[in-house]
C-alpha cells in the first residue's frame, strides 16, 4: 500500500532534488487507489511553487500539409484526415484574436503552425503580429525547427516563450516519427534558450510508450532546464496510424501529471490537448495531480473546454487565476 504519508515523504525528497532511481521505479509501479494517494504529494509540491492557475490559449495559424510523419498528427500530409488545410493566416486576423484574448484572464497567446518550419515571408508575418501585441499579452509561438537568426528576430519583436515539444522519449521517438530526428528537436530547444527565450516543451501521451519512457521524457526535460511542460493526451485521429490507440485511462493520465510534478517540482506544468476527452469525471483532479496551468479553448484540430467553461471549473474549485 502507498499512503498519503509516503507521497509527502517523496515530495520532500523531490523538493531537495534527491529522488532516487528506486523512488522513480516506485512511482512507475503505482496503480489504482495508490495513484489517488500520490496526489497528496503532487498537490503539496504545486502549492509550494504556484499560488494560481495560469491560462494560455493557442491559434492554429497555418493548418495541414505538414511534411513530417508524426504518427499521432492530424496535420501530416502522409495521412488522410478531415483536418482543415489553409495557408498562414493574415496578421490582422491573428492580431484581432490576440486583442480579444488580452481582455480576458488568459495570460499567454501562442501562434502555432503546421510544418517543420517557416518561410522568411512567414517569419515577417509573425514579427508583425508580435509587434502589435507585445505590450498587451505574453506571446508564445510554436513554429517548428528554427535557426538562431529567426529565433533572435522573434525575440526582438516581442516573443516571450518558444514552444517545441519533444513529443516522447528518445527511446520511443523512432516509432512515431521518421522524417526528422530527436536531436533536431533538442537543438531547437537549446537555440531558443541561447537567445534568451523562455522554453515550453513537453509531449503527447498514449502513443504506446511505457511508463518508464514517460519518466525518461521527464528526466530529459529536467536536464534541458525548460521553463514549462505542456502535457498532451492523445485524441486518436481517424486516418492516422494511431487511430485505434486506446492506452489511456483517466487515472493513468493523472499518474502521468503527478510523475512530472515530482520530477520537475518547480516548473510550470500545463495540461493541454486531450484534457476534455481523457479525464472524464476525474478532470478536477488534474490540479491536485500537479497542473499549474491549462490550455483553454480549442486545440489545433479538436475542440476543448471553452474559456467560460474553464473559468467556471476554476471558480467551483476556488482556485485563483
TrEMBL record:
Q: Which reaction does it catalyse?
A: (4R,5S)-dethiobiotin + (sulfur carrier)-SH + 2 reduced [2Fe-2S]-[ferredoxin] + 2 S-adenosyl-L-methionine = (sulfur carrier)-H + biotin + 2 5'-deoxyadenosine + 2 L-methionine + 2 oxidized [2Fe-2S]-[ferredoxin]
EC number assigned by the record: 2.8.1.6
| The protein's required cofactors | [2Fe-2S] cluster; [4Fe-4S] cluster
Ranges for the Radical SAM core domain? 48-275
The reply on keyword Iron is yes
Q: Where does [4Fe-4S] cluster bind?
A: 66, 70, 73
Q: In which domain of life is the source organism classified? A: Bacteria
The EC category is transferase
Q: In which family does this protein belong, per the annotation?
A: Belongs to the radical SAM superfamily. Biotin synthase family.
Per the entry, what this protein does is: Catalyzes the conversion of dethiobiotin (DTB) to biotin by the insertion of a sulfur atom into dethiobiotin via a radical-based mechanism.
Q: What name appears for this protein in its UniProt entry? A: Biotin synthase
Amino acid at each position: 500500500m502507498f499512503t498519503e504519508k509516503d507521497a509527502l515523504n517523496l515530495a520532500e525528497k523531490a523538493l531537495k532534488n534527491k529522488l532516487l532511481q528506486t523512488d522513480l521505479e516506485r512511482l512507475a509501479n503505482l496503480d489504482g487507489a495508490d495513484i489517488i494517494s500520490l496526489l497528496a504529494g503532487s498537490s503539496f509540491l504545486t502549492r509550494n511553487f504556484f499560488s494560481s492557475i495560469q491560462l494560455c490559449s493557442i491559434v492554429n495559424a497555418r493548418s495541414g500539409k505538414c511534411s513530417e510523419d508524426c504518427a499521432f498528427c492530424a496535420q501530416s500530409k502522409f495521412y488522410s484526415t478531415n483536418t482543415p488545410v489553409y495557408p498562414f493566416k493574415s496578421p490582422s486576423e491573428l492580431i484581432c484574436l490576440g486583442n480579444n484574448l488580452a481582455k480576458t484572464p488568459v495570460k499567454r497567446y501562442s501562434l502555432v503552425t503546421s510544418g517543420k518550419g517557416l518561410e522568411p515571408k512567414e517569419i515577417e508575418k509573425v514579427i508583425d503580429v508580435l509587434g502589435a501585441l507585445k505590450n498587451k499579452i505574453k506571446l508564445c509561438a510554436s513554429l517548428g525547427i528554427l535557426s538562431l537568426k529567426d529565433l533572435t528576430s522573434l525575440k526582438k519583436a516581442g516573443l516571450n516563450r518558444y514552444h517545441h515539444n519533444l513529443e516522447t522519449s528518445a527511446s520511443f521517438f523512432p516509432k512515431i516519427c521518421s522524417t526528422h530526428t530527436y536531436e533536431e528537436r533538442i537543438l531547437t530547444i537549446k537555440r531558443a534558450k541561447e537567445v534568451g527565450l523562455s522554453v515550453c516543451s513537453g509531449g503527447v501521451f498514449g502513443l504506446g510508450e511505457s511508463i518508464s519512457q514517460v519518466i525518461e521524457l521527464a528526466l530529459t526535460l529536467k536536464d534541458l532546464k525548460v521553463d514549462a511542460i505542456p502535457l498532451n493526451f492523445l485524441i486518436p485521429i481517424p486516418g492516422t496510424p494511431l487511430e485505434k490507440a486506446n492506452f489511456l485511462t483517466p487515472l493513468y493520465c493523472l499518474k502521468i501529471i503527478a510523475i512530472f510534478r515530482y520530477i520537475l517540482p518547480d516548473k510550470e506544468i500545463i495540461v493541454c490537448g486531450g484534457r476534455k476527452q481523457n479525464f472524464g469525471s476525474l478532470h478536477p483532479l488534474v490540479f491536485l495531480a500537479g497542473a499549474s496551468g491549462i490550455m483553454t479553448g480549442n486545440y489545433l484540430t479538436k475542440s476543448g473546454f471553452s474559456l467560460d467553461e474553464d473559468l467556471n471549473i476554476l471558480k467551483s474549485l476556488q482556485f485563483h487565476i
